[in-house]
Structure formats: C-alpha cells, structure tokens
Design brief:
mainly alpha; 4 helices; flat
Length: 84
C-alpha cells in the first residue's frame, strides 16, 4: 500500500507502531483489544494536539468514555460466562 510508506515517513515512529494494534480480525477479543488500542492512540494524539494548540484536553469526558466502554466490556464478559 502506497499510503503506508507515506505514513511511515511523516508520522512519529511510536504512532506508526501503535497503528499495528488498531485492526483486528473477526475474533471478539481482538475487536475489544483493537477498540482499546484505538482509544489509547486517539487519546495520546489528542493530548499532544491540545498541548500544541494550548487548549484544555477534556480529561473528564475521556474518562467517562473510557469507563463506559470498560463497562460494556465487563457486561459482555459476564454475559458470555453466564454470570449476569
């Protein structure tokens, strides 16, 4: 893919490496992992951008969204194990 080499040229090496974990196959656990990785990469980039632009990062909203996704994951795990 041509965009990959372009992306690797201008993006921070840590971001390029993080992108590997953003995709999954069709296994449920991989989808949850990819979602968590995506949220972490987005958070890190958004914090960097907010610092560069000198604006306040919405940590409370971030925490709320993270907790919401974690609660969905926990509910899903309990349902899969039959321990609702």
């Amino acid at each position: 893919m041509a965009w990959v080499s372009f992306f690797e040229k201008w993006a921070d090496p840590n971001i390029v490496q993080a992108f590997i974990g953003l995709y999954s196959h069709y296994e449920e656990n991989e989808i949850w992992d990819a979602l968590e990785n995506t949220m972490n990469v987005f958070r890190n980039i958004a914090i960097d951008v907010s610092e560069l632009l000198n604006i306040k990062y919405p940590y409370e909203a971030d925490e709320f969204a993270t907790n919401l996704v974690e609660s969905f994951y926990s509910e899903n795990e309990m349902a899969r194990k039959g321990t609702t």
